[in-house]
Amino acid sequence: MSSNSVTPEVVRQFSSLPLHDAILQELRLDWKHRTCTASILAFMDRTKDAVARQILWHDVSEAFIPHQNPWGPSVFINSASVDLDGIFTIEMQSGDQIQIQAKGFDFK
Questions:
Q1: How far apart are CA 60 and CA 23, in angstroms?
Q2: Cα separation, 70 vs 58, whole angstroms
């Protein structure tokens, strides 16, 4: 993946999202607009049911979306991180690591 740097603040914001145990429902790549959208059910409040949310990456330059299930099938997110080169990694509880290289993201 090529360089697409992000700020330390973007790293902090993305890493603090409540994504552990969130359910990944769909990933969609919009080629024309260079966006990638993850539709998820996230536990915004651990005492309540999961709610529908979206992660929208913008200025996407690359996407790697394996679905090999090395740890067995799962729709649950294990962890999420981003490095300063703008590589956003979603590790699934299946062991797959989804990587989206982008200049930023929105969580809504």
A1: 22
A2: 29
**pTM of the model as a whole:** 0.90
Q: What are phi and psi of 92, to 5 degrees?
A: -85, 155
Amino acid at 25: Q
Whole-number Å distance between alpha carbons of 105 and 57: 4
Per-residue pLDDT of the chain (108 residues; tens, 9 = 90+): 455 789 999 999 999 999 999 999 999 999 999 999 999 999 998 889 999 999 999 999 999 999 999 999 999 999 999 999 999 999 999 999 999 999 999 999
Task: Write a three-state SS string for the chain.
Answer: CCCCCCCHHHHHHHHCCCCCCCEEEEEEEECCCCEEEEEEEECCCCCCCCEEEEEEEECCCEEECCCCCCCCCCCEEEEEEECCCCEEEEEECCCCEEEEECCEEEEC
Residue among 12, 17, 35 at smallest CA distance from 83: 12
